[in-house]
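[Q] Does anyone have a clean structure-token version of this?
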Amino acid sequence: MLTTLISSLIFAQLALPPTLEEDRLRACMDEARNDPAQAILNVSDWMVGTSGPSVSAPQQCLGFAYMSLLRWDAARQAFTEARDARLESDSAGRARLGAMAGNAAIAAEQHGQALVLLQAAQADATAVGNTTLAGSIASDRARALVGLGRMADGANALEEARSLAPQDASIWLLSATLARRMENLANAQQWIETAAALDPGNLSIGLEAGLVAALGGFDDAARSSWQSVIDTAPRTPEGQTARFYLDQLDEEQLPQ
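[A] Here you go.
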């Protein structure tokens, strides 16, 4: 999931016809997926004689390669250096790169660092009027806040995220999950229904919908949600989790 998120942030800035540098970044990122160690070596060659804003692209690729190797702290550092190489006026690029760095910090369980990075990234996104990106980053801030044990602050960040990016199903899913954890099942039910309407085929939404239903005492609805996940993708991690939840429901030992 994190790989998909960061990839989408990277390619969002490559939507226009690519420059030679962007073509090189695409090729480097492909290599980072398939052979991250070689990508790291190639970035070293790329960096020779590079300075100023041109440092940003190879550092992005380096961050992606480290992410493929699950070296989250190194990825955070590379994405941060890629952000810092951008011109101060390039708020959109700085926002996306800051979000990548923040997500890498969350993966490394460095939630305090993540919060600092994500606050700056959201400010950059807001500065250029990109409310969708600002909303996505606000939801990442919520994850960092929850990681710090600040549940209420996380809920407030998600309220902001829903306002900024109301069409983002992942924000509604995260909102429902946090509401369930905070034992606010009424909001959890409302928000998971919105998530499902926006992205009906999302397996993670199906899993969460089942949990909310089961904890609300609607066992048949829970079974239906989880069985749908199993029927759709039985061999996926989500399908296996749905099977586990069904077994737990029969034993009344569901996670809270």
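[Q] Thanks! Anything notable?
[A] The radius of gyration is 20 Å.
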